[in-house]
Amino acid sequence: MRLFVALTPPQDALAELEAAVAELRADWPGLRWAGQDRWHLTLAFLGEVAESRLDGLRDRLARAVGRHRVLRLRIGRGGALPSPAKARVLCAHIDGDAQALSDLRRLAGSVAAAARRAGAPPPDEGRRYRPHVTLARSKRPANLGPLVASLSEFSGAPWDAAMVELILSHTGPQPSYQTIGSWPLRAGRTGQAG
Known about the structure:
Elements: E1 2-7, H1 11-25, E2 32-33, E3 41-48, H2 54-65, E4 69-81, E5 87-95, H3 98-117, E6 132-142, H4 145-150, E7 159-161, E8 163-170, E9 176-184, E10 186-190
Parallel strand pairs: 4-10
Antiparallel strand pairs: 1-3, 1-8, 2-6, 4-5, 4-7, 5-6, 8-9
Helix pairs in contact: 2-3
């Protein structure tokens, strides 16, 4: 089972981003654009996980998520990974105040630690966490600087991240996602996305 743990922005936040991205797609047909139905904020990519680990993973994630409060975030400016000049990923960064972003990094660390304890260690654990929504991918490194510049002023409306999801990724010609677990963050918000 190919799994990841994520926050999914609300539909109105995704619609704002879609409006900013829609007109850019036609000029960049060489990119593999992700549909709005697959936009999310990954907390931990777990990769292939044995089905026998699933119950323990759900238990550990429930405990980890329950220690963290709702986060006030927003989808922000465009970016590219690893860099605009040699990018494989076009993304939109996640913004919020310093406390919310710090709490988001702690949540991602807790989720990764829970997965590790459940026997499903994230393959990229230990790398610097860079919260973003992936918009498109390139098979080869490409100069996506013009796209990043086009999205440099984007700043969506603030939203509350209140639910963490465990998502099964179905790969193939028509990739899709299926939520197979979800847990609420604690009531009370941290951060103001101002």
